[in-house]
Automatic annotation (TrEMBL):
Origin organism lineage: Bacteria, Pseudomonadati, Bacteroidota, Cytophagia, Cytophagales
Extent of the signal sequence: 1-26
Positions of the Outer membrane protein beta-barrel domain: 14-212
Annotated SUPFAM superfamilies: OMPA-like (SSF56925)
InterPro entries given in the database record: Beta-barrel_OMP (IPR027385), OMP/PagP_B-barrel (IPR011250)
Protein name as annotated: Outer membrane protein beta-barrel domain-containing protein
Keywords, alphabetical: Signal
Amino acid sequence: MKPLKLFAVKALIVSLLSSIYIQAQAQSRWSVAPTTSLVKWHPSYYFNQSGQSVPDPTYGYSVGVMGQYQLSPKWSLSSGVAHLSIKLDGDGSNFLRNNYLQVPLYINLRPSLKRLSPYLTAGISWISHQRLKAFTKEDGHVRELPLDGVLTKFNYKRVYGVVGVGASYRLNNHFSITAQPIFSYKFRKEQFDVNNSDRYTVSLQAQLVYTF
Protein backbone atom coordinates (compact mmCIF):
# COMPACT_ATOMS: atom_id res chain seq x y z
CA MET A 1 0.00 0.00 0.00
CA LYS A 2 2.85 2.35 0.84
CA PRO A 3 4.53 1.96 -2.58
CA LEU A 4 1.19 2.78 -4.18
CA LYS A 5 0.82 5.94 -2.09
CA LEU A 6 4.40 6.94 -2.88
CA PHE A 7 3.74 6.42 -6.58
CA ALA A 8 0.57 8.55 -6.35
CA VAL A 9 2.46 11.38 -4.62
CA LYS A 10 5.21 11.28 -7.25
CA ALA A 11 2.63 11.27 -10.04
CA LEU A 12 0.89 14.29 -8.45
CA ILE A 13 4.17 16.20 -8.17
CA VAL A 14 5.08 15.44 -11.78
CA SER A 15 1.61 16.53 -12.90
CA LEU A 16 1.86 19.81 -11.00
CA LEU A 17 5.34 20.55 -12.34
CA SER A 18 4.20 19.75 -15.87
CA SER A 19 1.21 22.08 -15.48
CA ILE A 20 3.43 24.90 -14.21
CA TYR A 21 5.85 24.36 -17.09
CA ILE A 22 3.06 24.40 -19.68
CA GLN A 23 1.61 27.59 -18.19
CA ALA A 24 5.04 29.21 -18.19
CA GLN A 25 5.51 28.27 -21.83
CA ALA A 26 2.09 29.69 -22.69
CA GLN A 27 2.82 32.91 -20.80
CA SER A 28 6.14 33.33 -22.62
CA ARG A 29 4.19 33.77 -25.85
CA TRP A 30 3.09 37.23 -24.66
CA SER A 31 5.23 40.37 -24.74
CA VAL A 32 4.75 44.08 -24.16
CA ALA A 33 6.89 46.77 -25.76
CA PRO A 34 7.12 50.53 -25.11
CA THR A 35 7.63 52.00 -28.58
CA THR A 36 8.96 55.28 -29.90
CA SER A 37 9.59 56.59 -33.43
CA LEU A 38 11.03 59.57 -35.25
CA VAL A 39 8.77 60.35 -38.22
CA LYS A 40 9.16 62.12 -41.57
CA TRP A 41 5.75 62.78 -43.15
CA HIS A 42 5.94 63.45 -46.88
CA PRO A 43 4.79 65.44 -48.65
CA SER A 44 2.65 67.94 -46.79
CA TYR A 45 1.52 71.34 -48.02
CA TYR A 46 0.46 74.69 -46.65
CA PHE A 47 -0.91 77.80 -48.37
CA ASN A 48 1.38 80.86 -48.24
CA GLN A 49 0.26 84.50 -48.20
CA SER A 50 -0.12 84.44 -52.00
CA GLY A 51 -2.49 81.50 -51.81
CA GLN A 52 0.02 79.11 -53.36
CA SER A 53 0.32 75.50 -52.21
CA VAL A 54 3.89 75.08 -50.96
CA PRO A 55 5.64 71.85 -49.88
CA ASP A 56 6.26 71.95 -46.15
CA PRO A 57 8.88 69.78 -44.41
CA THR A 58 7.05 67.91 -41.67
CA TYR A 59 8.74 65.98 -38.92
CA GLY A 60 7.39 64.46 -35.76
CA TYR A 61 7.46 61.65 -33.26
CA SER A 62 5.28 58.91 -31.88
CA VAL A 63 5.19 57.21 -28.48
CA GLY A 64 3.07 54.24 -27.53
CA VAL A 65 2.90 50.67 -26.35
CA MET A 66 2.58 47.42 -28.32
CA GLY A 67 1.40 43.98 -27.26
CA GLN A 68 2.87 40.97 -29.03
CA TYR A 69 1.80 37.33 -29.32
CA GLN A 70 4.33 34.71 -30.42
CA LEU A 71 2.78 32.42 -33.06
CA SER A 72 5.97 30.35 -33.34
CA PRO A 73 9.65 30.81 -32.45
CA LYS A 74 10.03 33.01 -35.54
CA TRP A 75 6.60 34.56 -36.23
CA SER A 76 4.58 36.96 -34.09
CA LEU A 77 1.56 39.28 -34.22
CA SER A 78 1.61 42.73 -32.62
CA SER A 79 -0.81 45.59 -32.09
CA GLY A 80 -1.14 48.56 -29.80
CA VAL A 81 -1.80 52.28 -29.60
CA ALA A 82 0.41 55.34 -30.07
CA HIS A 83 0.29 59.12 -29.94
CA LEU A 84 1.59 60.62 -33.20
CA SER A 85 2.55 64.31 -33.31
CA ILE A 86 3.53 66.00 -36.60
CA LYS A 87 4.97 69.52 -36.80
CA LEU A 88 4.22 71.84 -39.76
CA ASP A 89 6.74 74.69 -39.90
CA GLY A 90 4.66 77.12 -41.94
CA ASP A 91 5.77 80.77 -42.27
CA GLY A 92 8.01 82.76 -39.98
CA SER A 93 8.02 82.04 -36.27
CA ASN A 94 4.60 80.39 -36.17
CA PHE A 95 4.05 76.67 -36.60
CA LEU A 96 1.31 74.08 -36.24
CA ARG A 97 1.31 70.66 -34.62
CA ASN A 98 -1.17 67.96 -35.63
CA ASN A 99 -1.84 65.19 -33.11
CA TYR A 100 -3.12 61.78 -34.15
CA LEU A 101 -4.18 58.48 -32.63
CA GLN A 102 -2.36 55.58 -34.28
CA VAL A 103 -3.38 51.89 -34.08
CA PRO A 104 -1.01 49.46 -35.85
CA LEU A 105 -1.53 45.77 -36.62
CA TYR A 106 1.66 43.96 -37.68
CA ILE A 107 2.97 40.50 -38.41
CA ASN A 108 6.66 40.13 -37.58
CA LEU A 109 9.38 37.70 -38.62
CA ARG A 110 12.56 37.06 -36.62
CA PRO A 111 14.21 34.52 -38.97
CA SER A 112 17.11 33.60 -36.67
CA LEU A 113 16.98 32.22 -33.13
CA LYS A 114 20.40 33.67 -32.38
CA ARG A 115 20.85 36.58 -29.99
CA LEU A 116 21.12 39.03 -32.90
CA SER A 117 18.69 38.57 -35.78
CA PRO A 118 17.14 40.47 -38.68
CA TYR A 119 13.62 41.67 -37.89
CA LEU A 120 10.95 42.15 -40.56
CA THR A 121 7.52 43.72 -40.17
CA ALA A 122 4.48 44.08 -42.45
CA GLY A 123 0.92 45.18 -41.77
CA ILE A 124 -1.40 48.18 -41.58
CA SER A 125 -1.68 51.30 -39.45
CA TRP A 126 -4.93 53.17 -38.78
CA ILE A 127 -4.55 56.91 -38.06
CA SER A 128 -7.20 59.30 -36.72
CA HIS A 129 -6.76 63.05 -36.25
CA GLN A 130 -7.25 64.22 -32.65
CA ARG A 131 -6.30 67.88 -32.34
CA LEU A 132 -4.59 70.78 -34.11
CA LYS A 133 -2.46 73.18 -32.03
CA ALA A 134 -0.75 76.45 -33.01
CA PHE A 135 2.46 77.80 -31.50
CA THR A 136 4.71 80.84 -31.85
CA LYS A 137 8.37 81.40 -31.03
CA GLU A 138 9.14 84.59 -29.10
CA ASP A 139 12.58 85.42 -27.68
CA GLY A 140 13.59 81.77 -27.72
CA HIS A 141 10.40 80.63 -25.95
CA VAL A 142 7.56 78.64 -27.48
CA ARG A 143 4.01 79.69 -26.61
CA GLU A 144 0.72 78.06 -27.61
CA LEU A 145 -1.69 80.29 -29.51
CA PRO A 146 -5.47 80.21 -29.03
CA LEU A 147 -7.45 78.92 -31.98
CA ASP A 148 -10.80 80.53 -31.27
CA GLY A 149 -13.31 79.83 -34.01
CA VAL A 150 -10.90 77.54 -35.86
CA LEU A 151 -11.62 73.89 -36.49
CA THR A 152 -9.08 71.96 -34.40
CA LYS A 153 -10.30 68.41 -34.96
CA PHE A 154 -10.72 67.05 -38.48
CA ASN A 155 -12.55 64.03 -39.81
CA TYR A 156 -9.23 62.52 -40.87
CA LYS A 157 -9.08 58.73 -40.67
CA ARG A 158 -6.62 56.92 -42.90
CA VAL A 159 -5.20 53.43 -43.33
CA TYR A 160 -1.55 53.00 -44.30
CA GLY A 161 0.24 49.89 -45.49
CA VAL A 162 3.43 49.29 -43.51
CA VAL A 163 6.72 47.46 -44.14
CA GLY A 164 9.87 47.51 -42.02
CA VAL A 165 13.29 45.86 -42.03
CA GLY A 166 15.60 46.08 -39.04
CA ALA A 167 17.26 44.06 -36.30
CA SER A 168 16.39 42.46 -32.97
CA TYR A 169 18.87 41.86 -30.15
CA ARG A 170 17.95 39.57 -27.24
CA LEU A 171 19.44 40.84 -23.97
CA ASN A 172 18.22 37.87 -21.88
CA ASN A 173 15.21 35.56 -21.55
CA HIS A 174 12.88 38.48 -20.79
CA PHE A 175 14.23 41.57 -22.55
CA SER A 176 15.11 42.36 -26.14
CA ILE A 177 15.60 45.48 -28.25
CA THR A 178 14.36 46.04 -31.79
CA ALA A 179 15.16 48.90 -34.17
CA GLN A 180 13.98 49.28 -37.75
CA PRO A 181 13.17 51.85 -40.42
CA ILE A 182 9.43 51.79 -41.16
CA PHE A 183 7.87 52.79 -44.49
CA SER A 184 4.13 53.57 -44.57
CA TYR A 185 2.04 54.27 -47.67
CA LYS A 186 -1.52 55.61 -47.77
CA PHE A 187 -3.87 53.19 -49.54
CA ARG A 188 -6.39 55.68 -50.88
CA LYS A 189 -6.21 59.21 -52.30
CA GLU A 190 -9.18 61.50 -51.55
CA GLN A 191 -10.83 63.33 -54.46
CA PHE A 192 -10.30 66.74 -52.85
CA ASP A 193 -6.61 66.03 -52.19
CA VAL A 194 -5.06 67.60 -55.30
CA ASN A 195 -1.45 67.20 -54.12
CA ASN A 196 -1.98 63.73 -52.66
CA SER A 197 -0.40 65.05 -49.46
CA ASP A 198 0.65 62.80 -46.59
CA ARG A 199 0.85 59.91 -49.02
CA TYR A 200 3.75 58.23 -47.24
CA THR A 201 5.84 58.41 -44.08
CA VAL A 202 9.31 57.20 -43.20
CA SER A 203 10.17 56.58 -39.58
CA LEU A 204 12.82 55.03 -37.36
CA GLN A 205 11.19 52.84 -34.71
CA ALA A 206 12.75 51.48 -31.52
CA GLN A 207 11.22 49.05 -29.00
CA LEU A 208 12.16 47.60 -25.65
CA VAL A 209 10.36 44.22 -25.59
CA TYR A 210 9.55 42.49 -22.30
CA THR A 211 8.49 38.84 -22.55
CA PHE A 212 6.51 37.46 -19.59
